[in-house]
Amino acid sequence: MEEKEITVNIKKYNDKDGAFWKSYKLKADKYTQMTEVLRRIKSEQDPSLAYRASCHMAVCGSCSMKINGIPSLACRTIALQAVNEKNEINVESMDYYPGVRDLITDIDGFYDKIYKVMPRLIADESVLMGENEQRMTPEDQTEVWKFQECIYCGLCVSACPSVKEDEKFLGPAAHAKGFRFIDDVRDTKKQERIELLMDSAYRCTSCYMCYEVCPQDVQPVIAIKKTKNYLDQYKGDTPVTVMARKHDDTIVNLIETTGKIKESTLFLKTFGFGEAMRDAVDMLKTGKFKYAFEKDSKVKNMSEIKNMMGEKK
Amino acid sequence: MEKKEYDAVILGGGLAGLMAANIVAAAGFSVAVVSKVFPTRSHSAAAEGGIAAYIMGNSDPNDDPDFMSYDEVKGGDYLVDQDAAELLSKKSGDIVNLLDAWGAPFNRQPDGRIALRYFGGQTYPRTRFIADKTGMALLHTLFEHSTGFKNIEYYNEYYVLDIVKEGNNVNGLVAMEMKTLNPIYLKSRALLIASGGIGMMYKHTTNSYINTGDGQGIALRSGVALKDPEFVQFHPTGLYPSDILISEAARAEGAILKNNKGERFMAKYAPHKFDLAPRDIVSRSMTIEIREGRGFEGGYLGLDLRHLGKKYIIERLALAYDAAKNFSGVDASEEMIPVRPAQHYFMGGIDVDTTGTNHDLNGVFSAGESACVSVHGANRLGSNSLLETVVYGRETGNTMVEFLKSHKNVETNSNVDPIVDAAYAYIKRETGEHFGVLTEELRDIMWDNVGIFRDNDKLAEAVSKIKDLRVRARSMYVTDKTSNYNTELFNALETRNMLDVAYTMATAALNRTETRGAHFRDDYPTRDDQNWMKHTLTYLAGDEIKISYKPVTYTRWKPEARVY
Questions:
Q1: Chain B: residue nearest A135 by CA?
Q2: How far does B176 lie from chain A, in Å, by closest CA?
Q3: A137 contacts in B (CB within 8 Å)?
Q4: Conformational region of residue B538, where left means phi above 0, alpha means psi within -120 to 50, and beta covers everything else
Q5: I want to staple B5 with a disulfide (CB 3.0 to 4.6 A). Which of B130, B187, B364, B521 is the partner?
Q6: CA-to-CA distance for A75 and B430, rounded, in angstroms?
Q7: Domain limits of chain A?
Q8: Which fold has domain B236-343?
Q9: Residues B434-441, mean pLDDT to the nearest whole number
Q10: Residue A156 falls in which region: left (phi positive, over 0), alpha (psi -120 to 50) or beta
């Protein structure tokens, strides 16, 4: 099989020397996975190279790292597809997590967030005693399986901007896990799960980074959006969910009355007068205040919109 | 050295270990689970096709557990302990229902019951599945279930060094925190070894990088026997060239193996079962085809899924489709998937009875691939490894509960420092050979000489080369002198374990002068029930392997010709 020489630049790290880049040259063919590249570097050139890898088929989630700046699984990356025009690849550890050694990071914080969502099915006692059989439609199984496919690789959290800013946000992976149980007809703790997840769900900015980087196509952001659908059943209001309710109610109200989402009104009603004034001062400073009073055209067929909104209820 | 005490220490966070952990913890005992990876990274995650189960009221109306046991006995070429096979079949439905109750999202039939499909060597369809990531889904289910117990403590990314003995009793183990290289003595009166397989000692394997026979290695060094280590399974459909597993589910769903002439060659070797004959037979047939020039350039054959249609392939065989696409650049709905046999499973393992108890060292238990309950005999059937991990994981867990009730923790008198010193010695040494040189040589020897086709010359050569490697391994040295997640040290320690286990495998293979199941001898091509209807027991005594034998347990099936 035809082989090409490639250069792999790895950002190494250890407690004593800190971070530094090191380059390795080796030959790869069109099927060589990055996990195999790392294994060969370790076995043939630099035995001290530290990285995690196990299944090399994208089901164990060990080999998470940044390849050419993109959060990736090494096993899912084919070396010759990842090289640039100079046949070079850059490999670094994941963002966000504390570095431990070379490509290994400490992701205990990632696991801790998953443990917080009660990540286990609590079936009915009669089922656990073997007295009752659980049934589930194929469609329900497909929905649960979609979010259960998470392999704990941690890439979504390393790419998530909200997790970095807001320590009360559970992060994409924990939300996918949490919602997988909300959605499971066999579970008996739906209400508790809604209480656990709702405040955090509204701390997501829907930026879709998790959607982009997930190697399993779990789409955590969709799980978060689906969790928000249960807001009406949520009981333990927090400042975040109170604001969420105002936001939702205002949107419905604006559409019903004007046919549009008027950003300035939505902002005022969601955040209140005080917050709006503080932001107005900032907007004045940056010359953006004029946009708050932009005139826009009126919606003509209001009756049609009212009908549609009526149907929805 | 830091020291902590538990009722039970479990080595391995895969399906067998976690099932037992859940059972022992539910009985109120304290458990430490020690693993060199976070539990969901265990190799159980890589099991794809499914778990065989006879579920009363949800199976083929003609099927019954006896047919299932018979399939196992015949599939294992009569080296199966028949009481073990019967227990496995009898408890299969029950265990699947338990996994379902704990949250495993099994694929469903339209009426909401658990779905099933055919797998190799089955008289009736029995395989239950979760897409083609059954192992991963079950592993996550058991791990997630275990997070509900406060009395299970995880030592993730801790590497086991050796077992601590007190006379003829086990007294826990010594492990090392990988992040810091700090040793810890985990003391307990019960030790479960559930550390999985040995695949990395073969050049071509479907196994994870972590499968290095650590549990078998520490067992051998403390005087525990490995049973039937000559029996290694080669899976027919490793993806070419990466050896990633293409699940037997593909053939179960109708995929066909073809040679370079486009022939369905399995018709010649297994006129009744074709591509769904047991794995040893299919792998040998493929090797013959390739050897006789009917393979494709580079040495592989074609797995044809095209007639199944793209929609069906993606729905039922997503992982196989993705793997072929990502790792071989093949769209399985348009081209054949390139496949060749690769090492897949170790039928041999730590000698235990059907309760999971080892009788060489009090307090040692084993379950899953690291154990040999003798339920797979000379060849394992597809869908039975997952089943074994959970059925025998639970049986062994229950046995451990009874053991813990009747035994008290023993005092420690032994000095455990030498265990740690032996590990540090690799770092302290300034010259010698790297682990990489030794493992590459071992991987070649095992593949070439202790592989699909064996004979006296190849095996004798393997034994002598492995002996030599073991001597060289004593002067192995580690270039990395830091205590900062020093993976090089752990690779060296893995090499030590692989060499000890490989030594028993090659020796037992040389010793067994017959062909049975996956052990095929060119120089002894037939089964010899007269002389060899017995289990091999191998002990490591210093630099020698001591071999003894143990009878096979029969209940109702007499050996007959194995035709598919």
A1: B112
A2: 16
A3: 108, 110, 112
A4: beta
A5: B187
A6: 34
A7: 4-105, 108-233, 239-312
A8: Flavocytochrome C3; Chain A, domain 1 (3.90.700)
A9: 94
A10: alpha
Q: Which residue of B has its CA nearest to A142?
A: B107
Residue B143 Rama label (left phi>0; alpha psi -120 to 50; beta)? alpha
pLDDT class for B318, splitting at 50, 70, 90?
confident
Query: pLDDT-based confidence at B123, cuts 50/70/90?
Result: confident
CATH for A4-105, options being 3.90.1580.10, 3.40.50.12780, 3.10.20.30, 3.40.50.300: 3.10.20.30
Rounded-to-integer distance, Cα B192 and Cα B180, Å? 25
Report the percentage of chain A scoring pLDDT > 90.
Answer: 78
Q: Say yes or no to pLDDT of A313 above 60.
A: no
Residues 6+ apart with CB under 8 A from B110: A137, A138
Q: Residue A166: exposed, middle, or buried by beta-carbon count in 10 A (0-12, 13-18, 19+)?
A: middle
For A108-233, CATH number?
1.10.1060.10
CB atoms within 10 A of CB B123: 14
Helices vs. strands in chain A: H and E counts, helices first: 14, 7
Torsion angle, alpha carbons of A235, A239, A244, A246, to 10: 100
pLDDT at site A51: 98
* Distance (Å, whole) CA B356 – CA B394: 9
Distance CA B42, CA B140 (A): 10
Query: Which residue is it, tokens 């149907």?
Result: A311
Identify whether the C-beta of residue B122 lies closer than 8 Å to the C-beta of residue B52.
Answer: yes
What tokens does B420 get? 């740690």
Burial of A134 by CB count in 10 Å (0-12 exposed, 13-18 middle, 19+ buried)? buried
Residue B296 pLDDT exceeds 70: yes
Q: Can you tell me the distance from the alpha carbon of B160 to that of B17, in angstroms, rounded to the nearest whole number?
A: 15
pLDDT tens figures, B181-210: 999 999 999 999 999 999 999 999 999 999
Model confidence pTM above 0.90:
yes
Domains B236-343 and B417-534 alike in fold: no
Task: Give the pLDDT confidence score for residue B414 in this predicted structure.
Answer: 82
pLDDT tens by residue, B486-539: 999 999 999 999 999 999 999 999 999 999 999 999 999 999 999 999 999 999
Using the beta-carbon criterion (under 8 Å), do A141 and B105 form an inter-chain contact? yes
Please give the Cα distance from B440 to B465 (Å, whole number): 13
The pLDDT assigned to A312 comes to 59
Residues of chain A with C-beta less than 8 angstroms from the C-beta of B244: 56-57
Catalytic residues of B: 279
Q: Name residue A66's beta-bridge partners.
A: A71, A92
**A233-242 pLDDT per residue, tens:** 999 999 999 9
Across A197-213, average pLDDT = 97
pLDDT digits (tens, 9 = 90+) for B70-101: 999 999 999 999 999 999 999 999 999 999 99
Across A31-35, A238-242, B348-352, B413-417, least confident range: B413-417
**Contacting residues for B198 by C-beta, under 8 A, at least 6 apart:** B207, B211, B212, B213, B216, B346, B498, B501, B502, B505
Residue ranges of the domains in chain B?
236-343, 417-534
Residues B371-393 have a mean pLDDT of 96
Interface test with B, best of A102, A103, A141 (most B CBs within 10 A): A141
**Candidate from B112, B135, B137 with C-beta closest to A135:** B112
CA distance B552 to B270: 27
Residue B32 pairs in a beta bridge with: B9, B153
Yes or no, beta carbons of B209 and A54 under 8 Å apart: yes
Report CB contact under 8 Å: B487, A135: no
